[in-house]
Design brief:
It is built from two helices and eight strands, in the order αββββββββα.
Length: 184
């Protein structure tokens, strides 16, 4: 009878040790199993705040620790020149089609915040300091351009699009020449 009791104690100790070892393994293995933290990398839609209609799509990429946003689709209004070039831009961007330009440059990630970057307004070539803040669920991106301090600026909230939205919409080749739409 003592053998049976000893056997039960040994099995119970082994089961307890197995549970502890299993828990340690789960904790150690759980680190890579966590869902990836959302980033601003991806496709974003800028919407006209007055009409609620899409104005443009931006593709944000990360390159060597810096984030940039290229304009990849423009929803032109009737009468706007679809061959719009950045005639007022400076440097290498001067005269290039707006479609495809990197308008957001040099953003550095700090959690869900992106800072120390710039954003260019292709209508007049103005370059502003910029911040971006990603929502915790990764579906909204607040983009803020400002002069001096961020208090004096303008923000827009962009909506994440599926990564395949651009290919399903059909990408249009970059246009040549043209004039800028008017500022609001």
């Amino acid at each position: 009878m003592n053998e049976g009791v000893g056997m039960k104690i040994s099995l119970s100790k082994l089961t307890g040790l197995g549970a502890v070892a299993g828990a340690v393994l789960l904790v150690a293995a759980g680190l890579p199993l966590r869902a990836a933290e959302p980033t601003a990398v991806g496709l974003w839609e800028q919407v006209d705040e007055k009409t609620g209609k899409p104005e443009s799509w931006f593709k944000i990429i990360e390159r060597n620790g810096a984030y940039q946003g290229n304009i990849v689709k423009i929803f032109f209004k009737p009468g706007e020149d679809e061959n719009w070039a950045c005639d007022k831009c400076e440097g290498d961007e001067r005269g290039k089609p707006v479609l495809g330009l990197a308008l957001i440059k040099g953003m550095q990630r700090n959690g869900n915040a992106y800072e120390n970057g710039t954003i260019m307004d292709p209508r007049d070539g103005s370059v502003y300091r910029a911040l971006m803040n990603l929502s915790p669920d990764g579906q909204k991106l607040e983009v803020r351009g400002y002069l001096g301090i961020s208090l004096f600026g303008q923000s827009q909230v962009w909506n994440r699009l599926p990564d395949n939205a651009l290919t399903s919409q059909g990408a249009r080749p970059a246009p040549r020449g043209g004039t800028a739409p008017q500022k609001k």
